[in-house]
Design goal:
By secondary structure, the protein is of the alpha+beta class. It is 20% helix and 33% strand. The strands form 7 sheets. Strands 1-2-7-8-9-10-11-12-13 form a 9-stranded antiparallel beta sheet, with no helix packed on it. It has an 8-stranded mixed beta sheet with strand order 30-31-33-32-34-35-36-37, with helices on both faces. A 4-stranded antiparallel beta sheet has the order 3-4-5-6, with helices on one face. The two termini are 36 Å apart. Pfam families: Peptidase_S9, Peptidase_S9_N.
Length: 729
């Protein structure tokens, strides 16, 4: 029975953490290391299910560069003595760090055992509260647990379920289910499988029936959607790039053809269906610019129609309802998101003619206030829901197409993160979502369009966190800009200036700090730690302008913001430098590493995960597949000497010098395609030498020597790994 299966699977520590519709505006930073087991959850939109990772085609909250040595080799002549020497140097450094780790790691064995037991206890306490979401299509209900996809009947009270797919049975035991799409007539199911050690996924198309069978296997697939019952569109990924869209059919004359190619290396292509499944959208996005093409799902073999030609600096995303397009765009001033509609009706004219009419048909529906972040949106038949963030608080804004009104509701003050649940039927009268914070497990809420009210849903046996206080502060940066901070601490803690403080920072790509619930954060609070989250410029916490004010030639502003945040915390009595640690992952390593060079006295320890710490050398290597598109974030030092000097002024690797550094713990991954392991090895070697040089000169003064530790993980990839692996880490 389904109940028996669920009981068995729950014994395997299955967890549900994130489920939310894959859309262009929603981002998350998958950088916390205590994460769900990779039996990823169904995430449904109409007949679509997805596990929520980074939104395809949007700014990934991770470092973008491929790190494989020799990613592109122009000729055999280049593989000469220098290549051999470089490889030998890499192997020697790797061996040296592994030996160093083998000596150091046993020191922490007893502490590791205690922490692991506590985290497992917290994990088991909170993991089952949200359950596995169901997707109902007619009388059928689909759900996924522990690498298996199940089908049950909506009216089956006994909990019976059939297994449609199992990763282990088909020989994919080392892979997890990343995305699921079910065809409109439910005859086919497309699934993407991805392993922890690879950036590329494989798409499996199953023909459903009494005995489901594998119909087609498509390698290196990124996104896919059913345009019709037997017509699947998909994008392919190669070297971290996604430029081609294909269409394949499964009945009558089976064939596959290329329907779209992106020629600009700065752009990344993905596909989606609108909420009402009227159109399939082909979305080509760079960091700052986008372009959308529409495929009419009623005529899936016709050529795509362009909505609006790309304009540098203008981003837009398309939805549809009642024969009208609704567009979220940054067009116009201020350059923040606005909701607009089109004044022509699609059914009255040819789609291609309609799309060619362009922006002159755009009419403003709603504009965001200054310093407001659009986190996500969802289109319904009579309403559009916007989730917004302003001054650290979350808001639910509902635009009613029926009453032509706008209602905004401030969500609970403790909430820092939300997850929008999937709503297969766009005609539903209720919007469901979950709220959480780093120390508050997810709580389910519902907004009723009919009643115009917010209802907290009952959750089975979820312990209430009552001993944690949340404080929101503003730090004044070097240029007088006020920078938001969010601080958590135990309400029972006394003498906060004596407590250890863990500061978090990211500040890149317009991505917010990940503030969803994590067991290790709650564990730290219970043990008396203070947690601080610095929402510095370069991130997205206060809208698109907040990102623009912290990228390229403004990158140092993020460093100034971080310094101001930590200084304010100490001034207000939250810990002190000798008890302060700084945590950062991926591109967050730029600001963390830079602060170590400029203000090491503010910190006692730094924890870096897959850090990006050599901006200059990486941006000089154009043979890397994603260097060109990264120029919109960091600049182009090859063609701009001022840019080169500017990057060199803050680049962590370039500015290491003999001084008293904090202790540093770095986790790196052998299979990380975005952060060069060689660069991390060289950074550690250079940092350790500088720290030892300073210690040898000042030993008589009693200065301490910091620990510089590198843990190289053989498994896992960039800031993303299974529950078991991340728990061990």
């Amino acid at each position: 029975s389904c109940a028996g299966l669920r009981s068995l699977l729950q014994g395997l520590s299955f967890t549900v953490k994130y489920y939310s519709k894959h859309n262009h505006l929603q981002t998350m930073c998958p950088c916390s290391k205590i994460k769900p087991k990779k039996c990823h959850i169904l995430d449904c939109s109409e007949s679509a299910c997805t596990y929520r990772t980074a939104p395809p085609g949007s700014i990934l909250p991770c470092r973008f560069f491929s790190c494989k040595e020799g990613t592109k080799v122009t000729s055999k002549r280049t593989q000469n003595t220098s290549t051999v020497t470089s490889e030998l140097l890499h192997q020697n450094l790797l061996k040296s760090e592994q030996e160093n780790w083998n000596v150091i790691s046993p020191i922490y064995k007893s502490m590791t055992k205690r922490i692991k037991e506590k985290l497992e206890e917290l994990h088991n306490m909170y993991v089952f509260s949200s359950g596995s979401p169901r997707m109902r299509l007619g009388e059928n209900v689909y759900f996924e647990e522990n690498g298996c996809i199940f089908l049950s009947k909506a009216d089956d009270d006994e909990g019976n379920a059939d297994i449609l797919f199992s990763t282990e049975d088909l020989g994919f035991s080392d892979a997890f289910i990343q995305r699921i799409r079910i065809s409109p007539d439910q005859r086919y199911m497309a699934i993407s499988l991805k392993s922890e050690n690879s950036e590329e996924a494989t798409c499996i198309v199953m023909k459903l029936g009494h005995i489901p069978v594998v119909e087609k296997v498509i390698p290196s697939v990124f996104s896919f959607e059913w345009a019709a019952n037997d017509v699947l569109y998909y994008t392919t990924q190669k070297n971290l790039k996604c430029h081609n869209v294909f269409m394949t059919t499964f009945t009558y004359q089976k064939h596959t053809k290329l329907v779209y190619t992106e020629e600009d290396a700065r752009f990344f292509v993905d596909i989606y269906c609108t909420k009402d499944r009227r159109f399939l959208t082909i979305n080509s996005n760079s960091k700052t610019t986008s372009e959308v093409w529409l495929v009419d799902c009623r005529c899936p073999f016709e050529s795509p129609a362009l909505v609006q030609a790309r304009t540098r600096g203008v981003i837009y995303h398309v939805e549809h309802r009642n024969d009208q397009l609704y567009i979220l765009t940054t067009h116009g001033e201020p350059a923040e998101y606005k909701a607009i509609s089109t004044d022509n009706y699609i059914h009255r004219i040819n789609l291609d003619t309609y799309c060619r009419s362009g922006r002159e048909n755009w009419q403003l529906v709603y504009a965001l206030e200054k310093k407001t972040k659009l986190v996500d949106f969802e289109m319904f038949s009579d309403d559009c829901v916007l989730f917004l963030k302003n001054a650290g608080h979350l808001y639910l804004t509902v635009i009613s197409f029926f009453s032509h009104s706008v209602q905004s509701i401030k969500l609970p003050t403790w909430a820092c993160e939300f997850e929008l649940e999937s709503h297969p039927e766009h005609t539903t009268s209720t919007c469901y979502f979950q709220l959480s914070s780093p120390v508050h497990p997810p709580k389910r809420f519902a907004y009723s369009f009919k009643e115009n009210n917010l209802i907290e849903q009952a959750v089975q046996e979820v312990p209430i966190i009552t001993n944690c206080h949340t404080t929101r502060l503003l730090a004044k940066s070097k240029d007088e800009t006020l920078v938001p901070l969010t601080v958590f601490h135990n309400t029972n803690s006394k003498e906060l200036h004596r407590k250890p403080l863990l500061v978090h920072v990211y500040g890149a790509y317009g991505i917010d700090l990940n503030m969803s619930f994590k067991e290790e954060k709650l564990m730290l609070i219970e043990e008396g730690w203070i947690l601080a989250y610095c929402h510095v410029r370069g991130g997205g916490e206060q809208g698109l302008s907040w990102h623009r004010d912290g990228c390229q030639h403004n990158k140092l502003k993020g460093l100034h913001d971080l310094r101001a945040c930590i200084t304010l915390l100490h001034q207000l009595g939250f810990s002190q430098p000798k008890h302060t640690a700084l945590a950062a992952a991926s591109a967050g390593g730029v600001l963390a590493g830079a602060l170590c060079n400029t203000d090491p006295q503010l910190l006692r320890a730094v924890v870096l995960q897959a850090p990006f710490i050599d901006v200059l050398n990486t941006m000089m290597k154009t043979h890397l597949p994603l260097t060109i598109e990264e120029q919109e974030e960091w600049g182009n030092p090859l063609e701009d000497e001022k840019c080169m000097k500017y990057i060199k002024s803050y680049c962590p690797y370039q500015n290491i010098k003999p001084q008293c550094y904090p202790s540093v713990f770095i986790t790196a991954y052998e299979n990380d395609q975005r952060i060069p392991l060689t660069g991390v090895l060289q950074y550690v070697q250079k940092l350790r030498k500088a720290a030892l040089d300073h210690a040898s000169r000042t030993r008589e003064k009693g200065n301490w020597t910091p620990n510089i530790i590198l843990d190289i993980q053989a498994n896992g990839s960039h800031c993303d790994s299974s529950w078991e692996h991340s728990l061990n880490e």
